[in-house]
Amino acid sequence: MNKKEEEKTTGSQAEEVRPTHRVRLPGFVAEEEIGLGDLVKRATYAMGIKPCSGCEKRAAALNRWMVFSR
User: Fold this and answer.
1) pLDDT computed for residue 59 by the predictor
2) I need a labelling partner for 33 at 20 to 30 A (CA). Which of 5, 40, 53, 59 fits?
3) Quick check: 45 and 1 in contact, CB under 8 A?
4) Mean pLDDT of the chain
5) Distance CA 53, CA 3 (A)
């Protein structure tokens, strides 16, 4: 394997193992954890924007990236 192939392999493996960021917001979050994607989904729904399949994918990706907890 040459150097470029090693970089591509190493880079893709690093993306798969990304940790979830956890942010504590006591007093603002209920008992359960809520992901950033769910938070955005609730806010847009409250404004009257209906979710589509792309919205679901975005919400899932954001939930993997950041979680708010008590």
Assistant:
1) 93
2) 53
3) no
4) 77
5) 38
What pLDDT does residue 3 have?
Answer: 47
* Amino acid at position 28, single letter: F
47: which 2 tokens?
């404004």
Domain segments of the chain as ranges: 37-70
Spatial distance between the Cα atoms of 58 and 51, rounded to a whole number of angstroms: 10
* pLDDT tens-place string over residues 32-59: 888 889 889 989 999 999 888 898 999 9
Distance CA(56)–CA(66), nearest Å, equals 15
- Which tokens is 40 given? 């955005």
